Amino acid sequence: MPIQHIKVLRNGTDEEELKVVETTGLPTWDADTKFTVVGRPQSRLEGLEKVTGRARYSYDVRLSGQLYAAVLRSPYPHARIRHIDTTKAEQLPGVHAILSSANAPDDITWYEEKSKLFDKTLRFIGDEVAAVAAESEEFAQDALRLIEVAYEPLPFVIEVEAALQPDAPRVHDKGNRVDEPTIYERGNAAAGLREADVVIEQTYTTQTAVHNSLEPHGCTAFWEGDQLTLWESTQGIFETREQVAEKLGLPEHHVRVVKEHMGGGFGSKQVPWKQTVIAALLSKQSGHPVQLMLDREAENLAAGNRNATVQRVRLGAKRDGTLTAILADIQVVVGAYMVGGEASEVNGMYERLYRCPNVRTEQIGVYINAGPCVAFRAPGHVEAAFALEAAMDELARALQLDPLTLRNRNYSEIDQKKEKPLSMPNALQVCYERATAAFGWQTYQRPAPTGPKRRGIGIAAHEWGGSGQPPAYAWIKLNGDGTVDVVTGTQDIGTGARTGLAQVAAEVLGLPIEQISVHLGDTAKGPYSPTSAGSSTQASVGPAVFAAAVEAKRQLLEVAAKLLEEEPERLEIRDGVVMVEGEPENKLTVAEVTGRLAPHMIIGQGARGPNAKDKTIRTFGAQCVEVEVDVETGEITVLRVVAAHDCGRIINPTMVDSQVFGGITQGVGFALTEERIVDEKRGLVLNANLEEYKIPTVADIPQMTNVPVNLPDLAANPTGVKGIGEPPLVPTAPAIANAVFDAIGVRLRHAPLSRRQLLAALATQAESIDKSAPPHTQEGQS
Amino acid sequence: MTQVSLTVNGSPVTREVEPRLLLVDFLRDTLGLTGTNIACDTSQCGACTIHMDGMAVKSCTVLAVQADGSTLTTIEGLATNGVLNPMQQAFWDQHGLQCGFCTPGMIMAATKLVENNPHITEAEIRHGLEGNMCRCTGYQNIVNAVAQVAAGKGG
Amino acid sequence: MRPFDYVRTTTLDETCQLLGQDGDSSVRALAGGTDLLTLMKKEISVPTQLIDLKRLPDLPSGITSTAQGMTIGTLTTMTEIETNVQLQEKYPLLAEAAAVAATPQLRNMATIGGNLLQRPRCWYYRNQLVNCWLKGGDECQAQDGENQLHALFGGGPCYAVHPSDLAPALLALEATVQLRGPGGERMVPLAEFYALPEEKRRQETQLEKDELLLNIHLPGLPAGTRSTYLKAMDRKVWAFALVGVAAIVRLEEQKIVDARLVLSGVAPIPWRVTAAEQALVGATANEATFAEIAEFALADAQSLSHNAYKITLAKSLVRRALTMLTDEG
Asked: Which residues of chain B make contact with A687, given a CB cutoff of 8 A?
């Protein structure tokens, strides 16, 4: 086996690692490859379980003697526990275990060692104070009420400007700045601004948004001797195993993490949280299985969120639209702690999306006394796009250029940061062309206003990663009856990974998908696969399955060749039949081949190989939006969204559509309604629920069209696949904000675009609306 | 403790329960019918939707004792003799699901919609599903699934 | 949720006695439960006994026509109100308001009695960590806090807004509620039933703790009466009103001869703007009139730090409702 150096991208920095993988000599699925399973709609393999209620989520586990846990959480945004007494709670019948700072291990740290598992200093409302395991959820709640805690409230800070004042209350001893600012500069940004004919300078803000996966975080934990099993709602079973083992001082093979089905994660479940270790300890203490699920309130308070941002943006351009400078000063409001996992790289899109020689970004993280942030579907990019793509729209208006024209004029075909070519330099161009063509951007005729209702259109673009990367491993086992078990330690977080991976295996092996089973979501049963984050599962694990299937096929054909007395090179498998090229009568079914071999079996092992080193692999997309704004009531209706997203080769078009529709819908929520509301005076989160934290309903969604792009990117991997999970959310909100401006001539620079903001802005600009028609995109094109 | 007797998915059930036990917890914890999901706790999201005496209700905001004497159907009781209800089949066919967590409640709400209004329009489908939140699919394929069933029935 | 005893009663008298017997108001009546159970989960309401009104045979349910108008029993569900054909014909306003309230599943459980008696959705009131004035505390945190959803009228000491969509419609229809207490029954116009909370009565209605709401009586409406309920929300559906307006207008030859305007989402109780109604009577139906009326209706509105937009919104809805109702088309 060849030994290869593999670059592993972790936390945004390159680390060199040494790994042994066999990934050379693989065939590739190039643009001319003919497929029978790949590229076709395929209903989900796990659909039956999900429509019958049999799909087992972490809190569906029912074990003999199982207890239910509940967590007491800090009622103060900042406080010190003076004293805690759990005596009364312990005496309550049905209570089996209690943990708090009084008895929990003192050496388990969390949040970059800034907090203990049960810390005596509490830094946000919802911080863990104590936990109880009891025979029912109700008893556990009863016990929580009996825990007596003497708190010493401390000064707190919620608002970002206030947090940056020298005399601000300190969230942490070292102050409220997470670190030194991250500064990036290429060229000379100040000089670029001076060269510009037109400069746009604006400040945009984005809100704290909460993932609100329908299934909250949680797990069921139990011990068999010194073996811990966790049924965990997680995006990363191996990440969870590694961290839990480390926190509890266990060897990794004594920890098994299982996740069959998961009710969404969107980034918030890419790292284990305190409650997982708390459940394991409660289980140990009580000698019973313990189930600990967060309720919706805790989910909103203490299980992550998309960080709010303040972004001061300056764009400079020549009269013809050529960008001369891009500058962004970015504050990222991280909450009380950094959680780890994917970073919120707000600065990245400023540095990459448009061709510009002079770019400067400065990003700083700021602590406040509220729940910690964690990656949320395209972290950083959603926030950045809201500002950058609106600023580009403002620039286009100032230059009297069509926003599309401005974007094309500043099209970047290379990775300007690394000075490397992009693997698919025309991908964004294709997205622009397909989205605008399907939308009718060039030919859009604004309908005449009906009463108070005004129509407008907007466009926005994005770039994102999603190339996937090593390591990821898979096994293919061919059974005696010709069926196939695909085994891998990845997880299906709801996206349909089982189905996409099965399609890859079926295609390589020439088998109908009904003969494929995919086994995943169990660290004890499958080889390592990475956390499902960064839109990377199909692009990371798919190639491992591909490699394993290629290897299994090679072995299968070797056996078949002997049985058919032919050379393996002359054999092909189609529809489960091994055929000899040009001799249609000379054939065997796969089952006949594997049957002859049984009980010996064919096992293919596959690993994800490295990405091309000489190119940068990114994904791109563009969305066009039409809105209707009621200028009397401030109501915004998103009428339609047309999306085109480059995700490499499309394995399952319906699942890609589904990701795009879901992303757009979250984008509509981000644009219009979703926002965590905190009373800054009291530190109270006022909408830690799905009543006042308003996610879109079925009535809020526009007509959505996804125009397939399907550009296989073989620099990424032999299957040509890149990710689609996160990107569709990115351009939606700025495209909506741009369309609102197009409709009514009012620029809203703060997400979400609430009625409150819109009506206030309309009141200020009422006169100008009456006097002149809103600017029309077509006017700029001449 | 209070005794409740009711019919769940065609079978009579009698249990002693605490009056504060929510119907959804009765189903999930007492009866082990874990197909009905809890997502919001506060009757917002509809994941816990079941049929109670022929009506779609949110079982997180009903006490088990309130259901005494009633007839319940949960997602587990929708298929008959292993044959999927057309709505279940349609959600599967049309990709009306992703993570699947809202799916049981969505299907239970949708079956009642079409049952009460066999010629239901798309607008009526949307109005009827207002009380069921989905965070993954964007609803489009869910509406398509319900429309598939309505088309089958209406045609 | 804290433990409680579940009680079924057989007569109205027994029920009222039970409700009244306890000094610390820990006996509560449960109908659909869609509001009370959410309050109990948050321990904002902590009853020790819960009387299941749906098991009380004498408590009326259903919609019946009377000589003048209609009577709606307290246990009538919101779904029945939304879908009852006679009610849709006679009082489309009510059916319209019911259809935009909550969600189908909740309308199946929720009763009209419970809807009229529901407590505010104010996010301070509903927060366990806050002891707001309405819950017996000293201050209203919304007054200087996040008050974007709060009251324009009748605010102080409580600035919460009344959440019901049916209540403004019923107030516009000049409904009367029939109440039953240990001493017998009384009829109270809805306009009096709702009263701004006071120091000694920190609730939105005049209902005594030992009283039950039995029926809602609707008087007849003259032929040619038009009505609508407009509701502005933070999203398209399934939200409480930012502002709503229940409007009733009767025209005779382009002159308005009867007008009723009730705003929702703007005050601790449904807010009837009587002066604006009076100004409308005799006026000619046109845009200029309606713009004036809208200004007039909101003239006394007092905005807090974050809710001034609601004034604009309310004016727009008033104008729009009146325009719709007087549009010849």
From this structure: none
Contact present, A306 and A382 (Cβ < 8 Å)? yes
Q: Where are the alpha helices (DSSP H) in chain B?
A: 23-25, 86-93, 103-116, 122-128, 140-154
Instruction: Give the SS3 label for residue A390.
Output: helix
Any CB–CB contact under 8 A between A152 and chain B?
A: no
**DSSP structure class, residue C209:** T
Q: What is the pLDDT of residues C234-251, one digit of tens each?
A: 999 999 999 999 999 999
Domains with residue ranges and CATH for chain C: 225-326 (3.30.390.50)
CB contact under 8 A, C309 and A759: yes
- DSSP strand E in C21-62: where? 27-30, 49-52
> Two tokens at A284?
């140990």
H or E element in which residue B16 lies: strand B11-17
Residue of C nearest to B131 (CA): C103
**Domains of chain B with CATH codes:** 2-77 (3.10.20.30), 86-154 (1.10.150.120)
Q: Is the CB of B100 less than 8 angstroms away from the CB of A690?
A: no
Classify each residue of A436-454 as buried b or exposed e, where b means 16 or more C-beta atoms within 10 Å of its C-beta: beebebeebebeebeeebb
What span, in angstroms and rounded, lies between the C-alpha atoms of C103 and B35?
Answer: 22
Structure tokens of A439?
Answer: 């939308």
Give me the half-sphere count of Cα atoms (radius 13 Å) on the Cβ side of residue A329. 5
Q: Tell me: pLDDT of C24 over 70.
A: no
User: Among this protein's residues, is A180 annotated catalytic?
Assistant: no
| Residue C145, CA distances (Å) to A164, A680, A683, C183 in order | 22, 8, 11, 43
Does the beta carbon of B41 lie under 8 angstroms from any beta carbon of chain C? yes
Of the candidates B89, B91, B139, the beta carbon closest to that of A701 is on B139
Mean of the pLDDT values across residues A717-733?
Answer: 97
**Chain A contact set for B89 (CB, 8 A):** 51
Q: Which residue has the higher pLDDT, A776 or A148?
A: A148
ipTM of the complex: 0.98
Expressed in angstroms, the distance from the first to the final Cα of chain A is: 61
Give dist(CA C133, CA C118) in Å, integer: 17
Residues 6+ apart with CB under 8 A from C274: none
**pLDDT tens digits for range B91-124:** 999 999 999 999 999 999 999 999 999 999 999 9
Chain B, nearest residue to A215 by Cα: B39
Contact: A52, B91; criterion CB under 8 Å: no
Helix (H, G, I), strand (E, B) or coil at A597: helix
CA distances from A632 to A80, A760, C297, C304, C318 (A): 49, 11, 16, 21, 11
Q: What is the mean pLDDT of chain A?
A: 94
Q: Do C145 and A755 touch (CB under 8 A)?
A: no
Mean pLDDT over each residue of chain C, to the nearest integer: 96
Write out pLDDT tens, residues A726-773.
Answer: 999 999 999 999 999 999 999 999 999 999 999 999 998 875 545 444
Q: What order of strands is seen across the sheet that includes strand B71-73?
A: B11-17, B2-8, B71-73, B49-52, B55-58
The residues on C that touch B, with CB distances below 8 Å, are 1-6, 30, 33-34, 37-38, 40-41, 50, 52, 54, 79, 102-106, 108-109, 237-238
The chain B residue lying nearest A61, using CA atoms, is B34
Chains in contact with chain C (at least 3 beta-carbon pairs closer than 8 A):
A, B
Predicted confidence (pLDDT) at residue A16 exceeds the cutoff of 60: no
Give all domains of chain A, ordered by start, each with its CATH number: 3-56+468-607 (3.30.365.10), 61-154+215-263+269-302 (3.90.1170.50), 308-467+614-781 (3.30.365.10)
User: Does the model's pTM come out above 0.90?
Assistant: yes
